[in-house]
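Input structure tokens:
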């Protein structure tokens, strides 16, 4: 993917905000943004996103989102494949750097909140917050790029390049750690503090909680927060 570095102050000099807002240039004057072109290398060729089957984005198009804890709103989109938030400035698209200045995005229309966190393997990325409280249920999206496979001969068709949406992974973020959830409830119970184990085990059993069902996980984390 082609990139171009540019300072935030220059990048957003053309953006206009309400009087209550601050410019991102002022908000992150020393940050650097990557200029994005929606292309990806596919062997010896370069493909535009529009020529690839599937969708690498959380939502099509750009939507206004509040940035951080300020009142600033920007037209952004979440690129799941690159795990970056991208901002539209006139006809140019820029990747917003993953740092503490841009650690939270809340979409205005849906109130969906994404936060920058590290998983239990130390990978920093964006997670959708499904529940609030001292324990947060986080949802991690992922998209895989499958390169084009040319036809080996005229009798066998090739395979077009495709963005493949993978199953999301869920985490519980407490005040001191993050727990990756699996379909085995025992793995969660073993990771909990000793004073929580029995109560959570009983709750899972009595409420027939399935660790693969998002609504059940929301119920479980809400119970943890009581």
């Amino acid at each position: 993917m082609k990139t171009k570095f540019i300072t935030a102050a220059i990048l957003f000099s053309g953006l206009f905000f309400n009087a209550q807002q601050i410019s991102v240039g002022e908000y992150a004057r020393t940050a650097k943004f990557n200029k994005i072109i929606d292309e990806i290398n596919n062997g010896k060729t370069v493909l535009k996103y529009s020529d690839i089957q599937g969708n690498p984005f959380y939502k099509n198009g750009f939507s206004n989102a509040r940035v951080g804890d300020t009142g600033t709103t920007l037209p952004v989109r979440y690129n799941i494949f690159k795990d970056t938030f991208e901002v539209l400035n006139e006809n140019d698209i820029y990747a917003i750097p993953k740092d503490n200045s841009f650690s939270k995005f809340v979409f205005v229309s849906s109130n969906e909140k994404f936060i920058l966190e590290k998983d239990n393997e130390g990978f920093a990325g964006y997670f959708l917050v499904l529940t609030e409280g001292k324990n947060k249920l986080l949802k991690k999206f992922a998209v895989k790029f499958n390169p084009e496979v040319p036809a080996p001969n005229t009798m066998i068709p090739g395979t077009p390049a495709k963005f493949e949406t993978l199953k999301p992974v869920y985490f519980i973020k407490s005040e001191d750690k993050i727990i990756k959830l699996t379909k085995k409830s025992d793995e969660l119970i073993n990771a909990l503090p000793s004073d929580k184990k029995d109560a959570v085990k009983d709750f899972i059993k009595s409420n027939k909680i399935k660790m693969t069902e998002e609504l059940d996980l929301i119920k479980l984390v809400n119970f943890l927060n009581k």
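The longest strand covers residues 124-131. Helices lie at 8-11, 24-27, 185-191, 194-206, 214-224.
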